[in-house]
Amino acid sequence: MKTIKSACQLQPKALEINVGDQIEQLDQIIHNTNGQEYFKKTFITEGMKNLLSKGMARLAGKSNDTVFHLKQAMGGGKTHLMVGFGLLAKDSALRETQIGYMPYQSDFNMAKIAAFNGRNNPHTYFWGEIARQLGRESIFREYWESGAKAPDEQAWINLFDGEEPILILLDEMPPYFHYYSTQVLGHGTIADVVTRAFSNMLTAAQKNKNVCIVVSDLEAAYDTGGKLIQRALDDATQELGRAEVSITPVNLESNEIYEILRKRLFLSLPDSNEIAEIASVYASRLAEAAKAKTVERSAEALANDIESTYPFHPSFKSIVALFKENEKFKQTRGLMELVSRLLKSVWESSEDTYLIGAQHFDLSIHDVREKLTEISEMRDVIARDLWDSTDGAHAQVIDINNGNHYAKQVGTLLLTASLSTAVNSVKGLTESEMLECLIDPNHKGSGYRTAFSEFQKSAWYLHQTPEGRNYFSHQENLTKKLQGYADKAPQNKVDELIRHRLEEMYKPVTKEAYEKLLPLPEMDDAEAVLKTGRALLIISPDGKTPPGVVANFFKGLVNKNNVLVLTGEKSSIASIEKAARHVYAVMKVDKEIPNSHPQRKELDEKKAQYEQDFHTTILSVFDKLLFPGNNRGEDVLRPKALDSTYPSNEPYNGERQVVKTLTSDPIKLYTQVSENFDALRARAESLLFGSQDEVRKIDLLDKMKQKTQMPWLPSRGFEQLTIEAYQRGAWEDLGNGYITKKPKPKTTEVIIGEDSSPDDSGTVRLKIDVVNAGNRPRIHYAEDGDVSESSSVLSDNTLVTKALRVQFLAVDPTGKNLTGNPNTWENSLILRNSFNEASRTVELFVAPKGSIKYTLDGSEARNGIDYTGPIQLGNEETTVYVFAECDGLEKKRNFTFPESGSNEIPIIKEVPAILVSPSPKRLDSSSKTYEGLKMAKERGIEFEQVTLMVGSSPRAMHLSLGDIKISAEFIETELKHLQTLLDPDAPVVMTFKKAYMPTGYDLEQFTNQLGIEIGNGEVEQK
User: Fold this and answer.
1) I want to staple 997 with a disulfide (CB 3.0 to 4.6 A). Which of 178, 780, 869, 913 is the partner?
2) DSSP 87-129
3) How much is the mean pLDDT over the chain?
4) What is the DSSP pairing of strand 67-72 with strand 211-218?
5) β-pairing verdict for 805-811 and 823-826
6) For the chain, percent of residues with pLDDT exceeding 70
7) CB under 8 Å to 279, separation ≥6 — which residues?
8) Cβ distance 317 to 331 under 8 Å?
9) Rounded CA gap, 74 and 996, in Å?
10) What DSSP designation does 965 have?
């Protein structure tokens, strides 16, 4: 597939066409031009074909169409069309070769021709010049010799007399009429005379069968002259009833413009097969883009037009149509010159071009740049956004950074689509339209789309309509305003913004890797912070404190193992500052533009874009961690790439990324102390204890900060390590501020637990275990006496006893651990009563044994009456205050009995109450248990001697809590933990023997709601 330069041959000077060189002087060329050569470079447009067809019929006397009015803006091909008509009218042989297919063209031999250019101003006026060219100057002499005098209709008829056809060509008449409208004559102007002469000529011509008049008009120029011409045409129309035939020489919105350009600029083009191949490739590329939704599906149809528009892109005419109505743009001649500059751009380019489009204008070529500037007057736009001699324009910077020319082509294309100066004109292209023009065999839409996105961010004069059309304008856009604020942003505000953003991104929350953060710090500040704890220093690769300074700082640092550095390889502090300035600017403009402002949507998009750019820039620059290590005995800062992977649906968490980096191989940070206990203990003993067995804890902590070989632990991680070491018996806290890594031999110790509370007889089931007694410990015990190694030995780990006291002694048979002191367990005295309602007598009992004293008047029971038998009560409500004692064990209880005939348990609502039950109170279902705990939390009720039973054998759990007062919140938390191990619907039962109620009222509400029965003597109140 051939490029344009290899497939096409240009006409001589095709790259040097100028508007001035193309202006055709009708009255000169018509008589001095070789017709055959002229038509070699002329494409016969529909407008020209229309004029020739009807004009030849008129000259042959076969048509009533007399006056032809060529309407098109300046440079629109009118003169060229007249010259062609004139050359054909005077040469029958030329007519035969060029328009031999047209009717009547051979019905006459040669027409007389009079051609007048309105920019001339002969003293004989236009009518005298026409008479002279027709060889009848004397007939009209009287109409100029004594001043301007309009020939009347009969004079014109006399001038046109004869059989020979006459063709009158009047070019550029509006300036002629305009000039005479300023020349005073009598009560009017000479233009009045000229208009009358012109009108008389038209009516006379219509009365002669073979006189044809062609007059051109300049739309949108010489307004006065144009109106005078139209007035004369209207006058002739009213008089004879026939209007002029209006003809547009060239339709710039059709493919005619391509035909003209090909004729005038190219000597040869490739054959149809080569063009069809190019069209096929473009069709394929556009189909791919349509499938990817880069362009509209309709774009594929463009390829079908390539055969009729080659070597130009089919979209070229629609772009030209956007500015063809510009007042000063010479439509055909101006376009010819513009395309000449476009061809020059292509022919001087080293890039392969297969179809020529507006994107190929090379703004580095002076003539090209000046031509586009002349049309648009957007010199500042070009200099700032598209091209300047220092490669500093926005599109140039983007292309230099990306190593391509995408931004230049995007910008040049949009500039060409923005050249219109007409009021309320359509400007610019949508992104889809733009990509339709740019996609070619070597370039896909994605590259241009990326370049366009970058260009939008930086261009100062690029705007977008609500419909999404992108165009250039003299007016600066929001980007320029933001850039102004960014350039003027105070340096201290920029530095503050960067530090604030770094603090947001890397704030220590878990404090696993570092406790403090110092973004872009001064080294003196850093040294002070590192004395107390581990800190992350964020150091710019090329800022005020480069990594080289940090390396020297590290050498002189005492607490070397406390420093962590986030830095990078790139020299990009300038890019961070630039991004920060943009964020500063958008924050400032945010306060100036209200929500109702047309630029608000764009501002919000810029705000999000700048925030993202700032964030991305920071991540791209700060991508390396330096942490302490040791290389062959020398302390060094070891580098490691910062882990950059994180969930896209979550906000960036810098601390988490640092932790991920340090906990991956090679590992510096251990966040799980228990799981890595053995390795961490070994490193600590080697590096922190060294050759010493006992070291002050404060010295260990200091060495943690200093020894670079020592792994890092999370905040309070060393505390966790020491606790675990104590628990495992690896280390020992000596209690004097020292820790030893060689604990002294332990002494045996007995652990006693009550598997049940004392029953009515005082019998208790004890569960016995030992520590520091080896794998086969020996447990001696003695009931109500002193224990020794000769005392009885437990056969298993339980003992059922009703003794007041039991002593236990644990012995390690291996002798490894020293035998400790005996452990003594004391029983609890159990007080209970038996009340006979009929006799109103109360019996008191104590277990396992002891003496009882009591009072009935509320005085101290310790000093009361010795109990020897049943106590007689009166009929009123009575409280018996009881004290029991046995061998140093004591117990107090108060038993309240209702008045005679009442079954209600007496409760004082206003004072605290204790529910004490010899047998456990039960909450026998999950719902009742949680309901009771909820009510207890609301009322501040606490429990003692609680058991929780969850699940059913074999998947069952039993939690027993002894004489410990615990809250409902604690019970509920523990219960939830237990339930996580079983099915959600596993049964739950809770029992308790004591409940502490803030008031008697709370006791009533709690027991009533949960259906708990209260027995005599189970409520204690003071």
Assistant:
1) 913
2) HHHT-HHHHHHHHTTSTTTTS-S--EEEEEETT---TTHHHHH
3) 88
4) parallel
5) antiparallel
6) 93
7) 303, 304, 306, 307, 310
8) no
9) 107
10) -
pLDDT for 688 equals 94
Tell which residue, 23, 22, 81, has the closest CA to residue 50. 81
Among candidate residues 168, 169, 195, 197, the one with its CA nearest the CA of residue 181:
195
* Sheet with strand 851-855: strands edge to edge: 865-866, 851-855, 878-886, 889-897
Element (H, E) at 571: none
Contact 962, 764 (CB under 8 A): no
pLDDT tens-digit readout, 668-717? 999 999 999 999 999 999 999 999 999 999 999 999 999 999 999 998 99
Helix (H) or strand (E) holding 766: strand 764-771
Report the half-sphere exposure of 143 (CA within 13 A, side-chain side).
27
Quote the DSSP letter at residue 147.
Answer: S
Question: Per-residue pLDDT tens for 104-135?
Answer: 999 999 999 999 988 888 999 999 999 999 99
In this predicted structure, the answer to whether residue 47 has a pLDDT above a threshold of 90 is: no
Can you tell me the distance from the alpha carbon of 398 to that of 406, in angstroms, rounded to the nearest whole number?
9
For 525-529, the CB contacts below 8 A with 24+ separation are 526/553, 526/563, 527/553, 527/557
**DSSP line for 22-58:** H---HHHHHHH--HHHHHHT----HHHHHHHHHHHHH
Which candidate, 931, 929, 934, places its Cα nearest to that of 947?
Answer: 929
Task: State both tokens at 3.
Answer: 């490029």
Instruction: For residue 894, list its beta bridge partners.
Output: 881
Q: How far apart are CA 859 and CA 880, in angstroms?
A: 10
Beta strand 851-855 pairing with 878-886? antiparallel
Tallying the residues shown for the chain, one arrives at 1022
Task: List the end-to-end C-alpha distance of the chain, in Å, as a whole number.
Answer: 110
The predicted pLDDT at position 225 comes to: 53
